[in-house]
Structures are given as structure tokens and as C-alpha cells.
Amino acid sequence: MSCEEAAAQQQPEQAEEKTDDPPIEEPLSELAKGGEISPAEEPAEAVVANPEKAPVASEEDVFTYRALVLTGYGGYEKVKLQMKKGKPSIKSGEVLVRVKACGLNFAELLGRQGLYELLPSPPVTLGMECSGVIEALGEDVTSRKVGDRVLVLSRHGLWQEVVAVPASQTFIMPESMSFEEAAALPINYLTAYMMLFEMANVRAGQSILIHMAAGGVGIAATQLCQTLEGVTVFGTASASKHETISQGGVTHPVDYRTRDYAEEIRKISPKGLDVVLDPLGGSDTHKAFSLLKPMGTLIVFGAANCVTGQKKNLLAMAKTWYNQFTINTLRLMHANKAVCGFHLGYLGDDELIFKTMNTLLELYIQGKIKPRIDSTYHFEQVGDAMRRMHERNNIGKVILLPEPKAEKEVENSEEKAKSSPEQGEMDDKKEEEVKKEESSQEGVKSEEN
Ligand SMILES: NC(=O)c1ccc[n+]([C@@H]2O[C@H](COP(=O)([O-])OP(=O)(O)OC[C@H]3O[C@@H](n4cnc5c(N)ncnc54)[C@H](OP(=O)(O)O)[C@@H]3O)[C@@H](O)[C@H]2O)c1
To answer: What ranges does the record give for the region Disordered, renumbered to this chain (predicted)?
Structure first.
């Protein structure tokens, strides 16, 4: 996704709420206290004046479930835990899944800021991957049965306790796989696998640069490189994560925050690299292209440089766009290099996705890949989960659990909150610092270009 496209698709900060399916919304702070969410919009006493004539509500009607809904564009508070009414109806070919764990992706951070064009405008339930157990089958579903443990892929809408999805978007989990691992696998590993093996055609003995190497896609790509002999992996990550990513297979961890990573890589590999995966955009794409050796392949698959914190940063977006890499075909021919783009959301090839998912599940069974879970958060802690990624603290996948947080945990986190300064103030201060750091770093980058 380019910043240009993202900016063009932006919606107003406060999108109007759709009115067709009004949810019952509770502020996160209330839910975090562990109290039950009341699903009732009408007071209970108003219902039964004449009990004999009172309509008997079906189980489907009184059914309620929790969902994480993006209510507008902006900071963490825009994702709200809401109680929805009525069981999701299952159409022919669909299954009803009781969700056990959900994956958080960088795309949801972009989506919250209005920068992910594939996400419908708010209010919309977030969530592109989850795992769970099949509870009911729609007509014509023969490939699945009630009780199957499945992982699920969708464009959005999976961050809720129960979901109705086409059976074709579910995959049977291997027996040894946990729900957390299953929720961590689809997007990161599909993306990494397709870039490495469908597009770049990475082979034994080659060299590759993986940015965000300690993140979800980064760890997946590193593990998949280990399925080949002698691939040299350069991985950029914050210094505190280097030990972990080295153990995971990164040959040369590079601290991009305090050094010029391109210079560091050239010192080790003066002839350049075979493949660079670029999820950053802007001036980093220039560096990526210059790091390639002849016959090398650059794959652009993100624009993380547009994001500097929880709130949208127009300056960072403008800088990323201004530094966007462009090349004409003649120069490309003279350089003997390939430049590709990859976006899973736009792929639209169900057969390829199905085939690749099955390959990945087989690799998991063989013990060749294993999602690394960084942390798990309950739905009511979604802001903390997002903060963990924004503040670059995760090593591996951040997981969300629909199950409500136990009261004891709630008490502990309230105690913690009391003994630390106001989180909002801290966030704002941190964002200021990040913006200052970004400006000085961009200054260095412009001088380099
Ligand atoms: N095109 C596609 O189909 C596709 C699919 C999935 C993901 N992606 C892209 O792949 C990238 C990684 O996604 P992911 O879901 O696996 O996330 P992730 O890598 O887990 O993201 C968080 C980590 O990235 C690093 N990072 C670098 N720049 C950052 C920034 N501006 N803000 C926050 N963290 C930053 C941080 O680690 P360090 O500090 O250690 O660097 C952070 O801990 C994203 O750009 C995403 O958009 C694209």
C-alpha cells in the first residue's frame, strides 16, 4: 500500500455511524473493571405487563456477543468493545465459529488511522485472522463438522466472540497447534511465503534483507528462509531484539535506529544482496534498490514509515510520499534488477491462498515453522495491544483473546495504572519525542539522497 493511495482513501476523522445494526456500546474503561456488559436497551421491568401475551424471545434473539469495533479514525480509543445482539446468521456454505484467539496486524494500526483502503469506513468490526471451534454448519457444508478446530482468514470482522464465515475461508488446525499459534499464522506466513517463494524465488545460498525482522512477518520470513540451505539473512530491528532474532535464524542483525543499516550491510556484503523485502517505503526503498546486486529482486509490501505513533502523522506521510521510489523501465533494464509489489489483500487468488496455507500447515507439522507469540491481551485491552506494536516493543505476534479478563487480573492492572503516571499524558509525550526523532532522522535521510 502506498501512502499516496492511503491518503487519497482517507475518511473524515469522525465517520458517521451506520444505523442499520445498532450495537450496545460500553466504554472500555467500564468493561476493564470486569463488570458484565448489559445487553439490554429496554429496562427489564418494561417487558412483562401481561406475561401470557408477552412474546417469547428466541435463543437467537437474546444471544449477545462481544466485538471490537472501529468507531472512527484516530487513536486507541477509537476501537471500542461493544456488545452485539442476535446470533450471526449462517448462510449456505458458511460455518459459525466460536473465536478463541485473534491476530493483530500492522494493517489494523493503519486502519485505525484511516490509512488502510481495504477496510470499510467505520463503524466496522476489525480483525483479519482468528482461530476457534466450529459451532454450527450452514446448508451444503460437508467439508467441516461441528467441533472442528479451525483458523480463519477474512478482510475484516473477525475480532468478535462468534463469527459466521464461508467454510472455504477456514482451515483445519493441526492437532499440536495452539489457538494462539493458529491466530498468528495466516497473514504473516502467507505474506512471507508468497514473497519469498512465489515472487522472489529465493534459493539456497542467497542473501536477503528482512526489515522489521522481529515483527510478525519478519519472524515468519526468517523461519521460511531456514527451510533452504545457507541463506544469509540480514535483519533490521531495535538492538534489544537482536539476541532473539539471531537465535531465530537472522545471520546479521542490524540496528537501524542508531546506524545507517545500508552502510553496515555493504561492509559485510560489498557485492550486494539477492533479495530485499521492503515494508517501510519512502527513502528506505531507495536504499533497498541500491543494496541489490545485479539480478536481485526488491519487493515492496508496506509503508510503515507513514506511521510514527498512535495518531496519524501528516508530516511523516508527506515525507514518505516525497521520498517515494520511482524508476523508469530503461534504468531498470540497465540495472539488471527486478522491482515487485506484493499485497495479500489485493491478491484475489483463492486457489493460491488455499494451496499456500496447506503448505504452511504441513511445514508447521514438520516442525519447520512455528509462530512466535509475543504477548496476549484480552479484548478489553486492545489499546494496550496496539500500543505494544506502535511503541515497537513486540518480538513476534500480538494476540487478542475474546475471553473476558478475569477479575483478579483487572484488579492487578488497575493497581499498576494507579502507581504509574497518567497513560494518556505519557502517550502524548512519547509521540512528541518520536516526531522530533523522525524529523532529525529524515534530515539525515534527505542529506543522504
Ligand atoms: N502487503 C501485504 O500483504 C502485507 C501483509 C502483512 C504485513 N504487511 C506489512 O508488513 C509490515 C510488518 O507487519 P506486521 O504485521 O508483521 O507488524 P510487526 O512487524 O509486528 O510490526 C511491529 C514492529 O515493526 C517495527 N517497526 C518498524 N517501523 C515501525 C513503525 N513505523 N511503527 C511501529 N513499528 C515499526 C518495530 O520493531 P523494531 O523496532 O525492532 O523494528 C515493531 O516492533 C508492515 O509494514 C505491514 O504493513 C504487508
So the answer is: 1-53, 401-449
Q: How many angstroms separate the alpha carbon of residue 288 from the centre of ligand 1?
A: 16
pLDDT at residue 425 tops 90: no
Answer whether CATH 1.10.600.10 is correct for domain 22-39+60-185+371-385: no
pLDDT, tens only, 87-117: 999 999 999 999 999 999 999 999 999 999 9
pLDDT for 418: 55
Instruction: Tell me the one-letter amino acid at 136.
Output: A
Domain ranges of the chain: 22-39+60-185+371-385, 188-347
Which residue's entry shows cell 536504499? Answer: 287
Edge-to-edge strand ranges of the sheet holding 124-125: 24-25, 79-85, 64-70, 124-125
> What pLDDT is recorded for position 415?
60
202: cell is: 529465493
106, 199, 222: which to mutate for ligand 1, most atoms within 8 A of CB? 106
Domain 188-347 sits in CATH at: 3.40.50.720
Report CA(362)–ligand 1 centroid distance (Å): 26
- Angle at alpha carbon of residue 215, lines to 166 and 198, rounded to 5°: 60
pTM of the model: 0.84
Among 392, 433, 438, 445, name the best residue to mutate to test ligand 1's pocket (greatest count of ligand atoms within 8 A of Cβ): 392
Residue 61: predicted pLDDT: 72
Give the pLDDT confidence of 241-250 residue by residue, as tens digits: 999 999 999 9
Containing H/E element for 317? helix 314-322
Q: Is the pLDDT of residue 31 over 80?
A: no
Atom of ligand 1 nearest to the CA of 395: 43
Look up cell 514509515; give the residue.
305
